[in-house]
Amino acid sequence: MSTSYDVKFWEVRRNQSSKTASYEVRWKVGGRQKSKTLRTKALAESFLSDLRQAAKRGEAFDMETGLPASMAKVKNAVTWFAFVLAYVDMKWPHAAAKTRDSLTDALATVTPALVNESAPGKPEPLVLREALRQYALPPASRQARRPEVIRSALAWLERHSLSVADLSKVRNVRLGLDALTLNLDGGAAAATTIARKRSVFYNALQYAVDLEELPANPIDKVKAWKPPKVREVVDRRVVVNPVQARELLTAVTYVGRLDRGRHLRGFFACLYFAGLRPAEALGLRVQDCHLPATGWGRLVLAKSKPQANKKWTDSGAAHDDRGLKHRAEEEGRPVPIPPELVAILREHVDEFGAHEDGRLFRTSRGGVISIGTYCEAWKAARHLALMPEQVASSLAARPYDLRHAAVSLWLNAGVAAPEVAERAGHGVDVLLKVYAKCIDGGSEVANRRIDDALAA
Asked: For the whole prediction, is pTM greater than 0.85?
């Protein structure tokens, strides 16, 4: 097989020779031009991204097929089980820890269902899941010593996994879709869980289409199966008003051992007054903060610290060091902050200083604060600051609801949607879709207009 590291890419372009919309990916390997046409621009850009990532990792490209080594491995897989292992290998190097977690979770759900149904001796569901999730799917875990029960389960999967070609049949792909709807205990899975896992399953099958191992994505042929609807808007009942937010921030200072609560006050204040995501606040450094003695200040966000299981991170630490969500690598996001937050952060720096890497919020040993730690403090603060009926409600039930409150406040204050989206790190379309029910006054304005029309 002749290979080359001399690879060149062009941007995706609309296929002008086709009456129906399609998009062409073009690249060159060792001087030989290659192309592939896909149905949508998103699919084409995804395929091109996979090619570019492979080149960035220094993979050799096959001059005949034009594919890098990792993609050729996926293409050459015969069974679904072998395909899944190769697919994970291809996706893993440039995936975030949470993406890896979600990827393995979904594939460990569908893969045990995509087997010969008449094959005897199928292992217990919990055993198959552990075998896939802990030993087979994570690349670094494949060389780990396997208990006999795990070896037997994986050997059974290798023997009885359906072929990739079998997935072109609707009845087979339904087996995978039906598996997504159930938890291991047989109960119904949450709508968000089903949607997330279906997306992974769909993308894996689409990759088989891209490699011409399937003629079309078989999920598109399944007409009788519909995923449950997922709530995509923020429930306005979780949104606190400014008075409640300030009472909660004060209450936080009274919880926890030693000075933990006082330390976390600035963290929660960033979520409310600046609309930061928790992972963005955990990555906030003193050098990212412009905190004048008077007036508005500014944060220039550069890093985030999302939490994930150590198994899914490259470093082996519980928190990834990532760029910002929906931003190119190294692209920052400026966020103006009101004088109240400027004062809180100045007080925080005066009392607690910063870690040697500049981080404002950290544990007593300099580590990254865990989700469990700040959620525990938040739960205690709600009991101190809210009435019993409010504690029992969904009002600010999660720290993330402070961000929802911030964005809702900005929109209701009349700040233009593009400006709110820029500060929050959203697209405008997503912003208005997610926060549509948190914008006050819409019903009253509509009622007045209808009254005026009726009176005419």
From this structure: no
